[in-house]
Amino acid sequence: MPSRLNPYISFDGDARQAMEFYQEVFGGTLSLNTYGDFGGEEAGDATDRIMHGMLETTSGFTLMGADNPPGTQHNPGTNISVSVSGEDAAELRGYWDRLSGSGTVSVPLEKQMWGDVFGMCTDRFGITWLVNINTSEG
């Protein structure tokens, strides 16, 4: 699978409704995972909130979105980041190194509870980047 670059939108509790709406608009296949799917009872009040949603269309569009993690603030207007994901670890780590090098790291690039290597940073221009290296074994 080649690497992909796409928008990632943060929502304040209505990610499911938004992503279902975008599916109505663009068509395609929608997959949704809740915080409860990965954190079980530890997710608390966020159990049914969307931790990760992805819409893939036959037109080649990919749109990702999720509800803000518990304890984080929702800031409309700054709630869109850019996701870079794929399986080529060397390529993606190179992007990470260059993006985060002169920026600020908010989540170090490391293995996460869903099994992939993930990191989040803000580059020197104020753009938030999400880098996900798919490590699933198929």
Summary of the model, kept short:
The chain is of the alpha+beta class and 138 residues long. It has helices at residues 15-26, 35-39, 89-101, and strands at residues 4-11, 29-34, 50-56, 62-67, 80-86, 104-111, 117-122, 128-133. It has one domain (4-133): 2,3-Dihydroxybiphenyl 1,2-Dioxygenase, domain 1, CATH 3.10.180.
Would you mind describing this structure in some detail?
By secondary structure, the protein is α+β, with helices and mostly antiparallel strands. The chain has a single domain, classed as 2,3-Dihydroxybiphenyl 1,2-Dioxygenase, domain 1 (Roll). It is 22% helix and 39% strand. The protein contains 3 helices and 8 strands, in the order βαβαβββαβββ. It has an 8-stranded mixed beta sheet with strand order 2-3-4-1-5-8-7-6. The longest helix is centred in the C-terminal third of the chain and has 13 residues. It is globular, with a radius of gyration of 15 Å. It starts with a strand and ends in a 5-residue tail after the last strand. The mean pLDDT is 90.
Which terms summarize this structure?
138 residues; alpha+beta; 2,3-Dihydroxybiphenyl 1,2-Dioxygenase, domain 1
Produce the secondary structure layout.
Layout: E1 4-11, H1 15-26, E2 29-34, H2 35-39, E3 50-56, E4 62-67, E5 80-86, H3 89-101, E6 104-111, E7 117-122, E8 128-133
Parallel strand pairs: 1-4, 5-8
Antiparallel strand pairs: 1-5, 2-3, 3-4, 6-7, 7-8
InterPro entries: Glyas_Bleomycin-R_OHBP_Dase, Glyas_Fos-R_dOase_dom, PhnB-like
Protein name: VOC family protein
Pfam families: Glyoxalase
